[in-house]
Write a structure and sequence with these properties.
heterodimer; A: alpha+beta; Aldehyde Oxidoreductase, domain 4; 7-stranded mixed beta sheet; 27% helix; globular; disordered N terminus; B: alpha+beta; Ubiquitin-like (UB roll); DNA polymerase, domain 1; 2 domains; disordered C terminus; binds FE2/S2 (inorganic) cluster
Chain lengths: 749, 168
């Protein structure tokens, strides 16, 4: 079969062919960064840097194409991960192009078609891609108006864009399709493009139903798992029983003879089987696991003493910040130590990918967060130039960071080499996802603060111990297949990097006003447990620690926790979300029934993205050790709210996910093997412990820069639960998760 | 050859009779609704209805459901003519990644067919076997309650589109 049968419609129409269509030929920048401090729409700076991702990919036609028939295609290098991107980016483009959002065709991350926007991560899709598309769309509209002015012989001021056409005086009209010609949009973006004012918005901030939901609730083809190209065969991988295990014996004759088996793939320690039917592949996989003999090596730390492992493994200490004096006198000093276990992304759908080798080109349909970096790593693994690999983002189950997606893509690409011309579908089993995904790293944090006579903070020291939270591709050695195959690509060495974006140190600097401040990252390069980016990175642990500690300081200062936070903040937007959350929750000092507590927490994600404050009520049952969060109120300010319901949806989701991490989740292992292969050994939140209500207040700021929001709730939720537990019981738990055993220990039952 | 009745249509499928129903639905009948999540009966992503009851299709050998009435999310309506359960999920925007949603809907459908006036607490209890990792629980609960009302012929008056409210 021919690869083009599988490709999105858009290529079949022939991008380079159409007369009257815009030619897309954009330069692909070497490497798009994960992100930086947001560029501000409307901000006037002396030396203009192009807004959002336009800085990396300035050509307008890399983002927008208008065909002779007037149809509009928008390109984004970002991917839909369940956050509603396919809808909100359409809203943004539609706003400036003056068309209906639904009329726009949106092409997401594809190495053959879209700009390279690095990873869809760090809550930066709207901030980077949305900003780029917004400015590009506005400029395209202005170009079309200028063209129409020539064509209609009317001054620019007399023209306006509406419903895909430029309208002039006396009914004069030119459709977008008539106005475009080859190259008209092949120009670089201008830094000073004027955007529509918020008062004129028709799409931004308005409720639009998500475009992807109808298919998802009616059984439409929505995920990479649902792809069924003609001639497709099914593959399963067989993983070693533990990290670093070596295959010593593999008598595969019996497997090869099994019904439907097309090929058994062995490359070093990489094992897979290809079969005609899916269940045949599953059976062959099980048989292979039975005949494969492995030599294993212990090497995992003691899961019951992670602080000891973290402290003794430090390779380097980095200064995250250092302000004022190292030590200052005060009335009293408090100290605390916090820990967090290794935790999983634990997607509901195990990772999957489809790949096909056709005429020397390997095409991979993948739910990766970064098609370009994944392509680079896969090309290196296969030993081919990058142009010989194409990665097309296709939705998967929600990922929440770097899960098994890239690895499954690599598996499929490698397996596809054995059956050229056939699309190969790889589906991981549940245990493969649970055991092999890169976890959110365990962390240890220590805080110490000195208060003056009035209880105000005069000095703050904070130290954190952590691996890197970023081991995404990377080289071929960042892929499981790359490590296992005979060439044994080594993992990329971990490097301590301290940047405004934050990693293990994300949100390690409190937003609170502290005159003397020291923050250090005790960096651990050694990664005996595979780790990478989990939603929020270090922010989850750091905000949990800081917000727990702030409540202890407030208690020591005999202050209300909300008032105490406010008095240490200058940023009016920070104060505003705190006030809104407290007011909507009905925050008070009133006594609560026995076993019930209220907790509050706040953070500005990454210290430069969304502001989020949260108040919640929880009941603690000391006999069973269970914590039931019953009511939650959050207030969030993410700048201009493009799609308010998506913000609410993601924030509710972040709160519930963080609640699950906080109450239940820890990866278990012995000295050799991970022992959390399924949902019974790695339990997560179920409906019985979901709160009665979660209320999310969006504090909208039209016309202000977009601030990433998707991960903003992770840290504050943990802090608020910790503080509610403290308020309910008078005891504090310093270690995540708050399991029933820990609750009972803390309460001495 | 197995004879399976799925969404009111009879199909002859040529598979190993021990094949889990999930694979038959997805691969032989090309129905996307039921999802592979764990294959262990722990997550509910694969939930379908058999003779009105919610079952884990990942654990059910196809031969055991011959002659029974199998219903998947595709049997609840279409994208152009969504049934009440589907309408309610769209109206409440009750999905993030959506991977767990079809399984949620089928378990909810089984509940509401057995107990049309299920209380909110019944809904919560019935959904216990199904996992959602995106944290869409509040909306799922609201959508199922809404589906219950739609099925009982309650009109749209007390309906508040999720997008307008921000209540979870
Ligand atoms: S896939 Fe059947 S219960 Fe998880
Ligand atoms: S919506 Fe993603 S798992 Fe439920």
């Amino acid at each position: 079969m021919n690869a083009s049968n599988l490709l999105p419609d858009v290529t079949r129409r022939g991008f380079l062919a159409g007369a009257g269509a815009l030619v897309v030929c954009f330069a692909i920048p070497a490497e798009a960064q994960e992100g930086e401090v947001p560029s501000a729409p409307g901000a006037q700076t002396a030396k203009p840097k192009l807004p959002g991702s336009l800085a990396d990919t300035p050509s307008l036609d890399a983002w927008i194409r208008i065909d002779a028939d007037g149809s509009i295609t928008v390109f984004t290098g970002k991917a839909e991960l369940g956050q509603g991107t396919k809808t909100s980016l359409r809203q943004i483009a539609a706003e400036e192009l003056e068309v209906e959002p639904a009329s726009i065709r949106l092409i997401t991350a594809d190495t053959a078609l879209t700009p390279n926007e690095g990873y869809t991560a760090g809550s930066q899709t709207i901030q980077n891609s949305g900003t780029a598309i917004r400015y590009a769309s506005a400029q395209v509209r202005q170009i079309l108006v200028a063209k129409a002015s020539e064509k209609l012989g009317a001054p620019v001021e007399a023209l306006k864009a509406e419903a895909g056409a430029i309208l002039g005086p006396n009914g004069a009209k030119a459709s977008y399709g008539e106005l475009v010609s080859a190259d008209v949009l092949h120009v670089d973006a201008a830094a000073d493009t004027k955007l529509k004012p918020p008062t004129a918005y028709r799409a931004i901030g308005k409720p639009f139903a998500r475009v992807d939901i109808p298919a998802k609730v009616t059984g439409g083809e929505a995920y990479v798992q649902d792809m069924r190209p003609p001639g497709m065969v099914h593959a399963r991988v067989v993983r070693p029983p533990s990290y670093g295990a070596k295959l010593t014996d593999f008598a595969d004759a019996s497997v090869k003879a099994m019904p439907g088996v097309i090929a058994v793939v062995r490359d070093g320690d990489f094992l897979a089987v290809i079969a005609e039917q899916e269940f045949q592949a599953v059976r062959a996989m099980r048989a292979m696991a039975g005949v494969a003999k492995w030599q294993e090596q212990p090497g995992l730390p003691d899961q019951y003493d992670l602080p000891a492992f973290l402290e003794k493994s430090v390779s380097e200490i980095g200064t995250v910040t250092s302000v004022g004096a190292d030590s200052v006198p005060g009335a009293r000093t408090l100290k605390a130590q916090f820990t967090r276990a290794y935790q999983m992304h634990a997607s509901i759908g195990p990772s999957s990918a489809v790949a096909m080798l056709d005429n020397g080109l390997t095409t991979v349909w993948t739910h990766t967060q970064g098609v370009y970096p994944d392509r680079k790593a896969i090309a290196q693994m296969l030993g081919v130039p990058e142009e010989k690999v194409r990665c097309i983002h296709t939705e998967g189950s929600g990922c929440y960071g770097h899960n098994g997606a890239d690895d499954a893509a690599a598996d499929a690409a490698l397996i596809a080499q054995k059956v050229a011309g056939k699309p190969v579908r790889v589906q991981w089993m549940r245990d493969q996802e649970h055991l092999w995904e890169p976890y959110g790293p365990a962390m240890l944090t220590r805080a110490s603060a000195t208060l003056d006579q009035n209880g105000n903070i005069v000095s703050w020291h904070y130290d954190l111990w952590s691996n890197s939270h970023g081991t995404r591709p990377g080289s071929a050695g960042s892929l499981i297949a790359g490590r296992l195959m005979a060439r044994h690509f080594p993992p990329d060495p971990a490097k301590l990097q301290i940047s405004p974006l934050g990693n293990g140190d994300r949100n390690a600097i409190p937003l609170y006003d502290v005159p003397n401040l020291r923050v250090n990252w005790h960096f651990i390069a050694d990664m005996p447990v595979r780790v990478s980016s989990l939603r929020g990175l270090g922010a989850y642990s750091n905000v949990f620690s800081i917000e727990s500690f702030m409540d202890e300081l407030a208690l020591a200062a005999n202050a209300d926790p909300v008032e105490y936070r406010l008095r240490h903040l200058k940023d009016p937007r920070a104060k505003k979300v705190i006030e809104v959350a407290a007011q909507k929750f009905g925050w008070s000092k009133d006594a609560l029934p026995e076993g019930r507590g209220r907790g509050f927490a706040f953070a500005k994600y990454k210290n430069h993205a969304a502001y989020l404050a949260i108040a919640l009520q929880a009941d603690v049952d000391s006999d069973s050790g269970t914590i039931m969060v019953s009511r939650v109120v959050a207030a969030v300010d993410c700048g201009e709210a493009v799609a308010p319901d998506s913000i609410v949806n993601q924030t509710e989701g972040g709160i519930l996910q963080s609640m699950s991490w906080t109450l239940y989740e820890a990866v278990h292992f012995d000295s050799t093997r991970i022992s959390s292969p399924d949902w019974s050994t790695y339990p997560i939140l179920r409906f019985s412990t979901v709160p009665d209500s979660i209320e999310v207040q969006v504090v909208d700021n039209p016309g202000t820069p977009y601030l990433g929001v998707a991960e903003a709730a992770q840290g504050p939720t943990a802090g608020a639960i910790a503080n509610a537990f403290r308020s309910a019981t008078g005891k504090r738990i310093y270690d995540l998760p708050y399991t029933r055993e820990r609750v009972k220990d803390a309460l001495g039952v | 050859m197995l004879k399976l009745n799925v969404n009111g249509t009879s199909h002859d499928v040529d598979v190993d009779p021990a094949t889990p129903l999930l694979y038959v639905l997805r691969n032989d009948l090309k129905l996307n609704g039921a999802k592979f999540g764990c294959g262990l009966g722990q997550c509910g992503a694969c939930t379908v209805m058999v003779d009105g009851k919610a079952v884990f299709s990942c654990l059910t050998p196809a031969m055991l459901v011959e002659g029974r009435e199998i219903k998947t999310v595709e049997g609840l309506g279409t994208i152009d003519a969504p049934g009440p359960m589907q309408k309610a999920f769209i109206e409440q925007q009750a999905a993030q990644c959506g991977y767990c949603i079809a399984g949620m809907m089928m378990r909810a459908q089984a509940l509401l067919e057995a107990k049309p006036d299920a209380a909110d607490a019944d809904i919560r209890q019935a959904l216990e076997p199904n996992l959602c990792r995106c944290g869409t629980h509040m909306r799922i609960l609201r959508a199922v309650a809404r589906a219950r009302d739609l099925m009982q012929g309650k009109s749209a008056d007390n309906m508040a589109p999720a997008a307008a409210t921000g209540r979870g």
